[in-house]
Design brief:
- By secondary structure, the protein is α+β, with helices and mostly antiparallel strands.
- The protein is 33% helix and 25% strand.
- The chain has helices at residues 18-25, 40-57, 83-88, 110-125, 140-148, 181-184; strands spanning 2-4, 8-11, 62-66, 72-80, 95-101, 130-136, 152-153, 159-160, 172-179.
- The strands form two sheets. Strands 1-2-3-4-5 form a five-stranded antiparallel β-sheet, sandwiched between helices.
- Helix 1 packs across helix 2 (40-57).
- The longest helix has 18 residues, at 40-57.
- The two termini are 28 Å apart.
Amino acid sequence: MRLETERLVLRSWESRDHASLAAVLGDAEVRRFYPTVATPEQTRAQLEFSIEKQAAMGFHFGAAELRSTGQFVGLVGLGYIPEETRAAIRGQPAVEIGWQFDKAFWGQGLAPEGARAWLTYGFETLQLPEVVAFTFVGNLPSQRVMKKIGMVRDADADFEHPRLAPGHPLRSHVVYRITNPALDA
């Protein structure tokens, strides 16, 4: 899997990505809206899981790197929503879009750029009827990206994340949606 934008190469994971991904997922500021930072072992497991999903499903969250230098900047992509989480969201959507970027690249418009490319792929190539995004209610930076890529908040679908214990400060999640524009025609 490989997509290109003006500034990014979006590609499938490779084992060489472990150290770069571990640095991003192990950064407390990057992961401030997640329950924990990821350990190198957890990152390796996530990387292996993503490689397996890519092989089985044809797509999954992937690496993002700068076209000009090949430097790793983070992850972005589409992924099937785990059943437990899917069941908690009104309409039980199948596919989500998401991103996590190295903080050195925040504020440069790379997340919306990569996400738009993935949405185009999802709608034109995969013929997905809809894509959702969800995040902790306080994660305003990600919500801004969701709006920038044309997603609309669906407050009726907001949910308490089932993988977080009742009372957990990050449990309340908001949902944004976007439908395939070809279906509106």
